[in-house]
Amino acid sequence: MEQIGAIRHYYSKIGVAVVDLTAKIAVGDTVRVKGMTTDLRQKVESMQIEHADVQNASAGQSIGLKVAEKVREGDLVYKVLT
Predict the structure, then answer these.
(1) What is the spatial distance between Cα 80 and Cα 6, in angstroms, rounded to a whole number?
(2) Which residues, 6+ apart, have CB-to-CB distance to 10 below 8 Å?
């Protein structure tokens, strides 16, 4: 696994996490969100930058990522390498 960012905010009503990226990510990648009480693994099915759908994002950008379950601010995001 390679760390690619951290959760800055989580919108529980819509199930979207704001991720500050330190490495690139693309739709289709598998990510793992890990924290004190969080351990979520899922495929990236959609992500947005400034409310626009994107296929790729790079280090230094913040994305909105649809997540399957609750995540918490400060949780780390990893890309699962195959």
Answers:
(1) 15
(2) 16, 17, 18, 67, 70, 71, 72, 73
Nearest of 23, 72, 29, 71 to residue 47 by alpha carbon: 29
Tens digit of pLDDT for each residue in 31-79? 999 999 999 999 999 999 999 999 999 999 999 999 999 999 999 999 9
* 49 CB-near residues (< 8 Å, 6+ apart): 57, 61, 62, 63, 64
The model carries a pTM of 0.94
The Cα 4–Cα 76 span in angstroms is 8
Reading the block at residue 78, the tokens are: 């990893």
Q: Which residues contact 22 (CB under 8 A, 6 or more apart)?
A: 3, 4, 5, 6, 59
